[in-house]
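Hypothesis: this fold can be encoded by more than one sequence.
Test: take the structure tokens below, design a sequence, compare later.
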């Protein structure tokens, strides 16, 4: 039986990627493609890879409440209202914003505002590799941040091997991670042949990484996180550094990663010394990662890559929707990236 779904925020990059993925999904029918300011405009006028005569719909909550599932690819302020409304109506919802990823107290700390529905926080955290059962049983799923997904996949399996208070995460993302809105810092002339840091030390994903490391049994204290802007359209790489506990070997690290993901279709662990590249996962829902140990310093370096619009956003949202609807988790998703 085909499920009817809607996308709110379909005019953004995450929404457009959802449309692309769902066009090939055999069990989901996209009944609503909603975008507030672009309502009535042809989808193809913004996204030429999505040809046809479909136009963006207006956002009509009553219409959304009749669907089997809704994706919210909206800013957190919009998701706070719509996510709560859909939850209360019993509509399964996957929210791609930060509206429901943290406790109400942590949300206030990192977002600088009080949460209007603390009873819904935190929602089921949508990182299936570590949280399948809670996702499948949920009504509201909080899709993780792109940096957070990429970092956690490399760090959570190593939790018992690391020294607390030593984690540093260096993240680099393509420009689509900053959204479709015109911004001076994203002008092609400014981004091309350049690399810049931003958001440190208080980027919201810092709190999200800390909270969900602890939530998945890896309470390793505060971390340092710095994101950077890469001059590429899509792709995300995190390099995480941490001190190893006494007696931990390189073999221990590799075994922990291999064991954690041996049955995972979307996570590929490479041999130590083989470092993943963002291009290898482009267009897919895959994550590639590898780790190396420096015996001189007693530190581990974990490198993880995802497509920030794939496993970092829309791909993972489809993975979560499959779980919510009782479908095979890989339906409509690729485990292999485009190359070259």
């Amino acid at each position: 039986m085909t499920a009817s779904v809607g996308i709110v925020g379909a005019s953004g990059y995450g929404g457009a990627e959802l449309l692309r993925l769902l066009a090939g999904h055999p069990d989901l029918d996209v009944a609503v493609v909603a975008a507030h300011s672009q309502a009535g405009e042809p989808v193809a006028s913004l996204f030429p890879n999505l040809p046809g005569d479909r136009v963006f719909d207006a956002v009509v909550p009553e219409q959304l409440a009749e669907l089997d599932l809704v994706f919210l690819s909206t800013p957190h302020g919009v998701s706070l209202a719509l996510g709560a409304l859909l939850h209360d109506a019993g509509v399964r919802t996957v929210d791609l914003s930060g509206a429901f990823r943290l406790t109400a107290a942590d949300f206030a700390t990192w977002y600088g505002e009080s949460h209007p529905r603390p009873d819904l926080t935190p929602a089921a955290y949508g990182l299936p590799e570590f949280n399948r059962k809670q996702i499948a049983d949920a009504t509201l799923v909080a899709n993780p941040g792109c940096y957070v997904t990429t970092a956690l996949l490399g760090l959570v399996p190593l939790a018992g091997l690391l020294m607390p208070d030593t984690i540093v995460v260096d993240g680099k993302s393509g420009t689509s991670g900053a959204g479709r809105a015109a911004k001076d810092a994203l002008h092609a002339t400014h981004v091309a042949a350049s690399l810049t840091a931003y958001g440190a030390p208080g980027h919201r994903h810092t709190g999200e990484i800390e909270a969900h490391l602890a939530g998945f049994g890896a309470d390793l204290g505060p971390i340092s996180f710095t994101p950077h802007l890469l001059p590429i359209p899509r792709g995300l790489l995190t390099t995480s550094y941490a001190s190893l506990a006494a007696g931990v070997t390189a073999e221990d690290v590799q075994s922990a990663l291999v064991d954690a993901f041996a049955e995972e279709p979307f996570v590929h662990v490479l041999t130590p010394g083989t470092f993943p590249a963002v291009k290898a996962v482009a267009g897919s829902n895959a994550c590639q990662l590898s780790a190396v140990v420096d015996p001189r310093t007693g530190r581990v370096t974990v490198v993880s890559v995802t497509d920030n619009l794939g496993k970092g956003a829309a791909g993972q949202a489809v993975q979560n929707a499959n779980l919510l609807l009782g479908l095979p988790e890989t339906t409509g998703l690729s485990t292999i990236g485009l190359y070259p």
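The chain is about 30% helix and 20% strand. The chain has two domains: 3-143+311-324, 147-308.
Hypothesis status: open.
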